């Protein structure tokens, strides 16, 4: 029987946990509780009159066609951003893993974009594809493409997805490279000796062994698309044109900080938090079952 390990100091473990617990309480549980409380209030923008309305704000939000539109936009944007960011990062990681000379230089150059702030990344893509002064927009028009994301909602969605995915590719690339390095080369060499081609080796050996990394990045990228892309959308399209790129998190900002509809904004933030928690729970409950931890 394995002897039980007893930590000699009774107070030190709690002292070591105290900073993290304090940060979690102050920056997550306290704001979340305040949002839940404010979501049941109806108050004027100046805070002079407050009325407790229970779940009336939630009923109003869920019946709003603009909120349903934001939910649809968020689903499209999140799925597209996650798929593009992970697929391109995996492709770049596989290509960089084959490089023998200058491997460190390639990896460093591919990781650098992650250091760019979301708002700066959005402005870069806006300048490149601006219909009036963008250098790449001239190339698109030269190819016969009527490019104007300021008026075309579908083109605006393509632009913000591209900017958000570009910002996240470096993060995904870093983890995919680490996952590829952890795969034993003997397995790939044995498959090559057996006559398996490069594509077959990737889908039957490499990709299944990357399942834990892929699942981790799926959760991270989903959360990123829901929350961390606010700066990109704000810089590139501002939720337009015609609310074509107004995601849930941007609608929370637009209703709460721009239009000062505080109760509805708080209710939307609570619903968004519940959606992300439920989505993460579903991923861990069902998707993780298909993940093989070798």
TrEMBL record:
Compartments, record wording: Cell inner membrane; Cell membrane
Transmembrane segments: 12-32, 71-96, 108-128, 201-220, 266-287
One of the Pfam families matching this protein, by short name: BPD_transp_1
Cited PROSITE patterns: ABC_TM1
Domain ABC transmembrane type-1: 71-283
Any one GO biological process: transmembrane transport
UniProt xrefs under InterPro entries: MetI-like, MetI-like_sf, UgpAE/MalFG_permease
Keyword Cell inner membrane: yes
GO CC term, one of those recorded: plasma membrane
Membrane topology (UniProt): Multi-pass membrane protein
Major subcellular location class: membrane
Superkingdom, taxonomy of origin: Bacteria
Membrane among keywords: yes
Keywords annotated in UniProt: Cell inner membrane, Cell membrane, Membrane, Transmembrane, Transmembrane helix, Transport
Similarity section: Belongs to the binding-protein-dependent transport system permease family.
Protein's job: Part of the ABC transporter complex UgpBAEC involved in sn-glycerol-3-phosphate (G3P) import. Probably responsible for the translocation of the substrate across the membrane.
Subunit description: The complex is composed of two ATP-binding proteins (UgpC), two transmembrane proteins (UgpA and UgpE) and a solute-binding protein (UgpB).
Protein name: sn-glycerol-3-phosphate transport system permease protein UgpA
Organism: Kumtagia ephedrae
């Amino acid at each position: 029987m394995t002897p039980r390990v007893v930590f000699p100091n009774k107070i030190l473990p709690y002292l070591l946990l105290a900073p993290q617990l304090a940060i979690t309480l102050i920056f997550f549980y306290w704001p979340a509780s305040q949002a839940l409380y404010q979501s049941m209030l109806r108050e004027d923008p100046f805070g002079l009159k407050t009325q407790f309305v229970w779940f009336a704000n939630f009923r109003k939000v869920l019946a709003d066609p603009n909120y349903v539109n934001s939910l649809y936009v968020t689903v499209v944007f999140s799925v597209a951003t996650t798929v593009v960011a992970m697929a391109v990062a995996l492709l770049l990681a596989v290509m960089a893993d084959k490089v023998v000379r200058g491997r460190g230089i390639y990896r460093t150059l591919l990781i650098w974009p992650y250091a760019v702030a979301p708002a700066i990344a959005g402005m870069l893509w806006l300048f490149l594809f601006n219909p009036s002064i963008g250098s790449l927009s001239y190339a698109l028009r030269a190819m016969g493409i009527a490019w104007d994301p300021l008026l075309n909602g579908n083109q605006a969605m393509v632009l913000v997805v591209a900017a958000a995915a570009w910002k996240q590719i470096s993060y995904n690339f870093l983890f995919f490279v680490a996952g590829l390095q952890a795969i034993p080369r003997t397995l790939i060499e044995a498959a090559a000796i057996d006559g398996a081609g490069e594509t077959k080796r990737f889908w039957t050996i490499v990709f299944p062994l990357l399942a834990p990394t892929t699942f981790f990045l799926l959760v991270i990228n989903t959360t990123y698309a829901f929350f961390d892309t606010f700066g990109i959308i704000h810089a590139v399209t501002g939720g337009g044109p015609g609310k074509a790129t107004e995601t849930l998190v941007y609608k929370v900002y637009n209703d709460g900080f721009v239009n000062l509809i505080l109760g509805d904004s708080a209710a939307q933030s609570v619903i968004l938090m519940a959606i992300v928690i439920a989505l993460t729970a579903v991923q861990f409950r069902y998707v993780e079952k298909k993940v093989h931890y070798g």
